[in-house]
């Protein structure tokens, strides 16, 4: 499978320039050979046995661009660096704020006071996690002229060997180049000879085998002759979430123990009661205090009445 050349990330502050097997002080990313990369078995032994050498080799040659150094972004960056990729560029345009201290475990109060960029503030900490990973930061804002085409979509190229004129039409790839696509993804075509109606068109695919996939009805198109490239297009997805206020009153709880399905809702109510107790008395209930136990139970019963989901309450002591 051919892949587009990675687009260079914006120049930013640099923390670590070493790569797998060899150290470097070059400010540019070191060029990775297509040959096998030597894996540090002392560092990656467990991961190597779980993922296998093929996956480890691919990660050792991977360049990753990660935008957003909030709580989730930082956790992803940490996992990527510990997994042993080749290079990581972290990006953020925001300054450190007080609320970041609750989600970003690498930030401190000085970062908030000095209004440091979030990516630059965590850069050194992330780089220290794995000396084999080249980590850089960027604070360049994204706009229509940003030369990072992969921000809009990542695409992978697949050389085609034949397209069957049928309903559904089956696209086959080179035997040594699996398409690595998944059902429901979208592809567009180019450089097809014969079935030119597919060039420039976008189709949702259904995987048939690692080397073939269907694209819908091609019975009305011209016969396929030769050539062609399928380009995977990543389309944006929109996710909608309910407000915190709505979820507090009508929580969607995950049941992990079907022998006690009411437990998640009871825990939810107990935590709300505990928060209300602390707000009322500026302290947490004392252990072994019957009065605090009764007050907490009363608060829990009151809160339970406001919830749309109901459960059976059991009075107990703290």
Automatic annotation (TrEMBL):
Domain Ubiquitin-activating enzyme E1 four-helix bundle: 235-303
InterPro entries, per the entry: E1_4HB, E1_FCCH, E1_FCCH_sf, ThiF/MoeB/HesA, ThiF_NAD_FAD-bd, Ub-E1_IAD_1, Ubiquitin-activating_enz
Region Disordered, residue ranges: 1-22
Entry keyword ATP-binding: no
GO biological process: protein sumoylation
Keywords: Ligase
GO molecular function, one term: SUMO activating enzyme activity
One annotated Gene Ontology cellular component of this protein: cytoplasm
Keyword Ligase set for record: yes
Residues of the Ubiquitin-activating enzyme E1 FCCH domain: 167-234
Pathway this chain belongs to: Protein modification; protein ubiquitination
Sequence ranges assigned to domain THIF-type NAD/FAD binding fold in this UniProt record: 44-152
Family: Belongs to the ubiquitin-activating E1 family.
Name of the featured protein: Ubiquitin like modifier activating enzyme 6
């Amino acid at each position: 499978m051919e892949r587009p050349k990675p687009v260079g990330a914006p120049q930013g502050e640099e923390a670590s320039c070493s790569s797998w097997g060899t150290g470097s002080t070059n400010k540019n990313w070191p060029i990775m050979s297509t040959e096998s990369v030597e894996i540090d078995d002392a560092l990656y032994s467990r991961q190597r046995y779980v993922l296998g050498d093929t996956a480890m080799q691919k990660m050792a040659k991977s360049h990753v661009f990660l935008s957003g150094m909030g709580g989730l972004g930082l956790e992803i960056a940490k996992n990527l660096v510990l997994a042993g990729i080749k290079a990581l560029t972290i990006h953020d345009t925001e300054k450190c704020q007080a609320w970041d201290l609750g989600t970003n475990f690498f930030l401190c109060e000085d970062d908030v006071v000095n209004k440091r960029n979030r990516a630059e503030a965590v850069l050194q900490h992330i780089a220290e996690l794995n000396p084999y990973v080249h980590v850089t930061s960027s604070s360049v804002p994204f706009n229509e002229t940003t030369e990072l085409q992969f921000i809009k979509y990542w695409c992978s190229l697949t050389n085609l060997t034949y397209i069957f004129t049928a309903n559904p039409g089956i696209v086959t790839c080179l035997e040594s180049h699996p398409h690595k696509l998944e059902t429901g993804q979208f592809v567009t075509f180019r450089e097809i000879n014969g079935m030119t109606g597919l060039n420039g068109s976008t189709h949702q695919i259904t995987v048939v085998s690692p080397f073939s996939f269907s694209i819908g009805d091609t019975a009305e198109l011209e016969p396929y002759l030769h050539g062609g490239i399928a380009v995977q297009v990543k389309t944006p997805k929109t996710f909608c979430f309910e407000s915190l206020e709505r979820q507090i009153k009508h929580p969607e709880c995950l049941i992990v123990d079907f022998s006690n399905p009411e437990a998640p809702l009871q825990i939810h109510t107990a935590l709300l009661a505990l928060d209300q107790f602390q707000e009322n008395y500026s302290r947490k209930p004392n252990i072994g205090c019957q009065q605090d136990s009764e007050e907490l139970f009363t608060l829990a019963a009151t809160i339970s009445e406001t919830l749309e989901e109901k459960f059976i309450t059991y009075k107990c002591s703290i």
